[in-house]
Amino acid sequence: MSISRSLPLSLTRHSFSSLAALIVIAGLDYITGYELQFFVFYFIPIALLASRVSQGSAVVGACVCAFVWYAVDHLSGHSYTSAFYPLWNALLRLSAFLIIAVALARMRLHRERMMEANVELANSLVRLERMNEELQRLREGLHVVCAWTKRIKVDGQWLSLETFLDHHLKMKLTHGISDEALKDFFSKGTEPTQ
Predict the structure, then answer these.
(1) Residue among 103, 106, 26 at smallest CA distance from 65
(2) Are the C-beta atoms of residues 45 and 22 closer than 8 Å to each other?
(3) 85: Cα separation from own chain's centroid
(4) How far is CA 133 from CA 69, 86, 122, 127, in A?
(5) What average pLDDT does the segment 98-118 reach?
(6) Beta-carbon count within 10 A of 93 CB
(7) Which of 6, 100, 125, 148 has the most neighbouring CB atoms within 10 Å?
(8) Per-residue pLDDT tens for 18-52?
(9) Which residues, other chains included, contact 108 with Cβ-Cβ below 8 Å and sequence gap of 6+?
(10) Where are the alpha helices (DSSP H) in 3-150?
């Protein structure tokens, strides 16, 4: 089975698992009545959606959980002195559910980013280790420098200093003129042109 096919199946499975958990929790909440509170258990399907599916799914799940809690509370015969109270309680639960949904989804995204950063760090360390080994090999070896051309002999090839530094040490160079050469240039009577 390919990854592209297993990913939607996994998402669907987690969505159905959270729906099944919500049905079980709502059933237990209804059976036990309004005196025994099951509010905290409604976080389970939301947490499952937030940690396994997506933030959007968790937000939808939070809304569904708040509605289901409201419906169960109403169906269980809980009477209030004002019609405002059950709506207020449902809004408070919805707020708590949404906070948990967003917080857990962001924690999941942060964890995924940290894992990606750790993989990149491990790859960078491998590259650094290889470069360090190459540097060590170059330092330990005896390099012959041509007395006339100032080229360096590496692995049987005569390389210019710029090529050697660029290819083996990954150094980028530019050219300038030293103070000594500039002084020598002007001492010969040559004036710079503008």
Answers:
(1) 26
(2) yes
(3) 42
(4) 63, 70, 17, 10
(5) 95
(6) 19
(7) 100
(8) 999 999 999 999 998 888 888 899 999 999 999 88
(9) 50, 51
(10) 3-32, 43-52, 55-75, 84-140
